[in-house]
Amino acid sequence: MPDYMIHLDALEVSMGLGIHPEERANPQRVRIDVSMTCRYAAVPEDRIDAVVDYDFLRTGIHALVQSRHFELQEVLCEDVAALALRDPRVVQVRVRSMKQDVYPDARVGCEIIRTLTNMQE
Fold first, then answer.
1. Nearest in space to 41 (alpha carbons), one of 50, 30, 54, 32
2. For residue 110, with 0-12 CB atoms within 10 Å meaning exposed, 13-18 middle and 19 or more buried, which class applies?
3. What are the pLDDT digits (tens) for 42-93?
4. Could you give all domains of the chain from N- to C-terminal order, each with its CATH number?
5. Which residues contact 11 (CB under 8 A, 6 or more apart)?
6. Which DSSP helix (H) or strand (E) runs through 6?
7. What is the DSSP code (8-state) at residue 34?
8. Hey, which residues does 11 pair with through a beta bridge?
């Protein structure tokens, strides 16, 4: 069965994220990168319905970050991973979030890797 890496890179969202009062007062810029390992029964035909369509992921992330304030990047990453793994053809996902404006000289973030079996435990 062939595996394919599908990437959604550099998705920049404005969202509530953080524990500090200034982070709670205003949305901040967060970059989200997602890589999904997708497994298909055979080499896919040249049709969108034959593969994982990354539009569902982009749309889902936008809805997720608008739905609530997240305290921790770890929780944000877990929720994005769970979203990606809803499609049974996604067997592994890597999610990275980066706060863009916390420090003037650095970005801060979190990265996780989850597999379909991790999420079912």
1. 50
2. middle
3. 999 999 989 999 999 999 999 999 999 999 999 999 999 999 999 999 999 9
4. 3-120 (3.30.1130.10)
5. 31, 32, 33, 34, 58, 61
6. strand 3-15
7. E
8. 32
Question: How big is the CA angle at 11 (ends 6 and 17), to the nearest 5 degrees?
Answer: 125
pTM: 0.93
* Tokens standing for residue 22: 């200034």
Which 3 state secondary structure label does DSSP give 36? strand
Rounded to 5 degrees, what are φ and ψ at 21?
Answer: -55, -40
Q: Which amino acid is at 71?
A: E
Angle subtended at Cα 12 by Cα 92 and Cα 33, rounded to the nearest 5 degrees: 20
The count of C-alpha atoms lying within 13 angstroms of the C-alpha of 81, restricted to the half-sphere facing its C-beta, is 24
